[in-house]
Amino acid sequence: IQHDQVPEDRRKDVTYGRICVDYRPQKEEPNRTRLTVGGNLIDYPGDVSTPTADTTTAKMVINSTISTPNAKFMRADIKDFYLGTPMERFKYMRLPLPLIPQEIVDEYDLTPLVHKGHVYLKIGQGMYGLPQAGILANQLLTKRLEPQGYYQCRHAPGLWRHKWCPILFSLVVDNFGVKYVGREHVDHLNDGVEKHYAFSKDWEGKLYCGIHI
C-alpha cells in the first residue's frame, strides 16, 4: 500500500518484517523460508492467550488410550494453521526495499510504493509473529468444529471431546493427539477438519505419523 494509506493513529504501530530460514528434513519441503512479523511492536487490545494442552494433559490422553479396551491413538497436524485467519483489526508492516527480490519488485510494480526506502504492507489475515495469530486461529477452529459436535473442555485447556463419538484429543497449537475407539470415529474428525484445513498425511492417505497402540 501507499505510505499515506496507513491510518494516522496506527503509524506509530507499524512493525518490521523478518525473513526466517530453516532446514526441516522431516517436512515435504525441507528448505523453508518465511516472512514473519516483528511481534514486539504490535499493539493488540484483546487477549492473546491461547488455550493449549500442557504435558500432563497430553500424557493423560495417551494413558487413557492404553487403559481403554480397543482404543487407539493418532497424531496429526494442520498445515499452515496460523495463516489465512481473517482479522477485523488490520496490522501494518514495512520492509526495506533491498530485502525484496528484484523479480518481486518488478512483478508487483512496487517501485511507486517506496517511501524512504521501504515498502508498506497491510496485514489482513494471520501471519507468523503476530501475538494474536494463535488465539484467532484457535477461535476459528472452534467455530468450524462446533457444528461437527466437537467442543473444548471447560476446565481442561486444550482438551477436546465430542458430544457422542468415543473420541477425545489434546491440542497444542496445530498438533492433535487423538484417542479414539473405532476407525469410523476418527474418520469423522478427519472429515470435519479437512473441510477447512489440510491435515498432514503420508503417501498411503493415512494421517501423518499415525501411531496405533
Distance between the termini: 53 Å
Order of helices and strands: EEHEEHEHEEEEH
Low-confidence segments: 201-213
pLDDT averaged over residues: 87
Radius of gyration: 21 Å
Number of helices: 4
Question: Could you give the count of β-strands?
Answer: 9
Structural class of the secondary structure composition?
alpha+beta
Structure description:
- The chain is of the alpha+beta class and 213 residues long.
- 21% of the residues lie in helices and 28% in strands.
- It has helices at 55-67, 102-107, 133-145, 183-194; strands at residues 15-23, 31-37, 72-77, 86-96, 118-125, 150-152, 159-162, 167-172, 175-180.
- The strands form two sheets. It has a five-stranded antiparallel beta sheet with strand order 3-9-8-7-6, sandwiched between helices. It has a four-stranded mixed beta sheet with strand order 2-1-4-5, with no helix packed on it.
- A hairpin with a 7-residue loop joins β1 (15-23) and β2 (31-37).
